[in-house]
Design brief:
Blueprint lengths: L2 H14 L1 H13 L2 H5 L4 E2 H8 L3 H14 L3 E2 L4 E3 L2 H4 L10 H7 L2 H6 L2 H7 L3 H6 L3 H7 L1 H25 L7 E5 L5 H9 L4 E6 L1 H13 L6 E5 L12 E5 L7 H14 L5 E6 L9 H14 L6 H10 L2 E8 L5 E7 L2
Parallel strand pairs: 4-5, 4-7, 5-6, 7-8
Antiparallel strand pairs: 1-3, 2-3, 8-10, 9-10
The protein binds S-adenosylmethionine.
S-adenosylmethionine (SAM) binds next to helix 12 and strand 5.
C-alpha cells in the first residue's frame, strides 16, 4: 500500500466512524457531562458517581471526549470544561444541548433509514417511528422542548444577519408562521415597540412560543395561535414571515402554505421567506447535510433562489428583493402579484 492509498484508507475510516462520534457527543450530553464538568476539575470517578454510570466506562468516554475537544485532560487525571463542552450545557441561549440529545436518539434512528429515503424519496423518520416528525413531537414533550431550544438557538445565531438584511420598522402587524420557539418574533418585537404580531405554530410548539415571548417581555404584543397554517392564516398583516419552514415541505405542500399566505395578505402586504438558500452547483458539507436532513426527517428539501422564485410564482407572489447575511441565511422578500 503506498502513502496515498494509506491516506485514503485512513480518511475512509474517519468517514465511516462518523456515527460513533455522534454517539460520543450525544451520550456525553445525555449523561449530563457538559453541566457536571462545571468550572472545576473533576476525575472520571467523580463524574461517574454524579452521572450514575460505570467507573471504567466513564473513564473511557472521558478520554474520547478529551480527544474530541469536549473536555480538557490534565496530567493529574482530572478533566475540565472546554469552549466546546460549554456550548452543550443546558440553558445557554446558543447551546446545542437539545440538538445533541435528539441527534443521538430519535433523529439518529431516522438517519439509519437514509437508504430508504434515497430509494423512495420519502422521509425515513416516518418509516422508522411510524409517524411524522411533527406528530412525534406532539406526543413527546421532552423532545419537543429539545427541538424548540434548537430552533431558538438557531434563530439567535442568525438574528443579526436577518436584522441587517431586512428592516422591520415599517411593519405594523407581523404574522410569523411556524414560529417555533418564538425567538425571532420576540427579538423583532423587542426592537420595534410599535409592532404587533401573531405567531402561529402547532400546539406542541406553541407552548414554547408563549414561554419565549413572556421571557422577552413582549407577550402583550403577540398573540399565539396553536393551529395549522394549512387550515388558516391570519388575514390582513403587513408582513408574513416563513423562517425555516418551506424547506420542511415538498413543492406541493410548500406552494399550499404560500397560497394560504397570498389569500390572507393585503394587496400591499409583503412576505419574507428566510432560508439557507442552496447553491446552484456544489455546496458545503453543511448545505448538503441540511438538504439530506430535510429528505430523511420530513420529505422536504433545500432550494436554490430560482426554485424559490418558481414556488413563489405558483402561489401568486413575485420576489422584490433578497439578501444573504454574513452567516449564510437569505431573506427573500416577495409581494403579491396583482
Ligand atoms: C424548522 S421549524 C422553524 C421554526 C422557526 N420558524 C425558526 O426558524 O426557528 C418549523 C416549524 O414549523 C412548525 N409547523 C410544522 N407544521 C406546521 C403546521 N401545519 N402549522 C403550523 N406550524 C407548523 C413546527 O412545529 C416548527 O416549529
Amino acid at each position: 500500500m503506498d502513502a496515498a492509498e494509506r491516506a485514503a484508507r485512513d480518511r475512509l475510516g474517519e468517514l465511516i466512524d462518523g456515527h460513533i462520534v455522534t454517539q460520543i457527543v450525544s451520550t456525553a450530553v445525555r449523561l449530563g457531562l457538559p453541566d457536571l464538568l462545571g468550572e472545576e476539575a473533576r476525575t472520571a470517578a467523580e463524574l461517574a458517581v454524579k452521572a450514575n454510570a460505570d467507573h471504567s466506562g466513564m473513564a473511557r468516554l472521558m478520554k474520547a471526549l478529551a480527544v474530541l475537544g469536549l473536555a480538557r485532560e490534565s496530567g493529574d487525571g482530572t478533566y475540565q470544561a472546554t469552549p466546546l463542552s460549554r456550548g452543550l450545557r443546558t440553558g445557554g441561549e446558543s447551546s446545542l444541548h437539545g440538538d445533541a440529545v435528539m441527534s443521538g436518539t430519535c433523529l439518529y434512528e431516522a438517519w439509519g433509514g437514509l437508504e430508504f429515503s434515497v430509494r423512495t424519496g420519502s422521509p425515513a423518520f416516518e418509516n422508522v417511528h411510524g409517524q411524522g416528525l411533527w406528530e412525534y413531537l406532539d406526543a413527546q414533550p421532552e423532545d419537543a422542548a429539545h427541538f424548540a431550544r434548537t430552533m431558538g438557538s438557531s434563530s439567535g445565531y442568525y438574528l443579526s444577519d436577518i436584522l441587517e438584511v431586512h428592516d422591520f420598522s415599517a411593519a405594523r402587524l407581523l404574522v410569523d408562521l411556524g414560529a417555533g420557539d418564538g425567538e425571532l418574533v420576540a427579538q423583532v418585537l423587542v426592537r420595534n415597540p410599535r409592532l404587533r404580531a401573531i405567531a402561529v405554530d402547532l400546539p406542541a410548539m406553541a407552548v414554547h412560543t408563549r414561554r419565549t415571548l413572556e421571557s422577552r417581555g413582549v407577550s402583550d404584543r403577540c398573540e399565539v395561535r396553536a393551529e395549522s397554517f394549512f387550515d388558516a392564516v391570519p388575514p390582513g398583516a403587513d408582513l408574513y414571515v416563513l423562517k425555516a419552514v418551506l424547506h420542511n415541505w415538498d413543492d406541493e405542500q410548500a406552494a399550499a402554505i404560500l397560497r394560504n399566505c397570498r389569500a390572507a395578505s393585503a394587496p400591499d402586504g409583503r412576505l419574507l421567506v428566510i432560508e439557507r438558500v442552496a447553491e446552484d452547483t456544489g455546496g458545503t458539507l453543511r448545505s448538503v447535510v441540511n438538504d439530506l436532513a430535510m429528505l430523511v426527517l420530513l420529505g422536504g428539501r433545500e432550494r436554490t433562489l430560482r426554485e424559490y422564485d418558481s414556488l413563489l410564482g405558483r402561489a401568486g407572489y413575485a420576489r422584490t428583493s433578497h439578501g444573504t447575511g454574513a452567516h449564510g441565511i437569505t431573506v427573500i422578500e416577495a409581494a403579491p402579484v396583482p
